[in-house]
Amino acid sequence: MEKSKIPKITKIINLVRIIKEFRYIKKKFKPDIIHAHVANGAGFYAVILGKLFKIPVIITEHSPSNLIISGRLSYYIVKYAYKNSKYNVCVSKHLMNELNRIYPYIKFDVIYNPIRIPKNLDNSILNNKQLGYINISFVSVFYDKYIKGMQYLLPAIKELKEKGYKILLHIVGDGKFQKYYIEKSKELNISDFCKFYGYCSKKQVFNIVNMSDFMVSSSLTETFGCAIAEALMIGKPVVITNSGGPEDFVNDKVGIIVKKESKEELVKGIEQMIRYLNDYDSSYISKYSKQKFEMDAITRKYMDIYEHYKLNN
């Protein structure tokens, strides 16, 4: 991860602009709470605004700790943000444990990301389901060449093909490295086993996942794993790597966890899922995940936090 190359004078200009814009926001809307969604950057500026305008700040952290803190300066910037916010939330127990290790005297709580399933999923996309094949969904934004583990997943699909499995991997998402992996699938002679959809709307993503038999995630690191939670919400079992956040909520009743950075582990996990696919209870998976991620319940938790700090400011 490259360090920021933004000149210090630019950062100062940005802060002046932010303060100016927030002065207008405060005058027009009179906000009770400032809610930032990462500490490094937004959280730091939010805390400064909170002090200047006497408004309580809370921070929800979504980023992996190694990306939040890339050096000594970022360590202290993030520490300042967490220490001066009223309430710090992590989107998984894994992330909370990492931050507790780095900042042992700062309190963090866990609130999962909220998920809402679109109504009336379009079953016409079921026409893309290759009959006689195991249909597997994979959702990613290819902003990074390696973070989503495709360098292990595609060779795993090649090995499964060579073993005689009939698999179609439905790959959703775009980004600058999408073409790289399209070419890689051709090099591995598995392009007939991979369908790249590119960019899809949120509803299209749900439709494709709904059409699949199960989802696979080969990520190297995830603070939460929204795509995994979404698949569970519509009753799909998952094969995931031990990438962090998803391990909080994936158990043997809803999926399989394998070691990350391993083609062999992915092959093993997918084979096991295919073998026991009919043993998974879709209605149980959906009910289990809705209890954890349902939008209204998560929103209520945040509303209670907002009300508490509004009244106690």
TrEMBL record:
Residues of the Glycosyl transferase family domain: 138-275
Gene3D superfamilies: Glycogen Phosphorylase B
Domain of life: Bacteria
Parts of the chain that traverse the membrane: none
Residue ranges occupied by any Glycosyltransferase subfamily 4-like N-terminal domain in the UniProt entry: 11-115
InterPro entries, per database record: Glyco_trans_1, Glyco_trans_4-like_N
Designated name of the protein: Glycosyltransferase
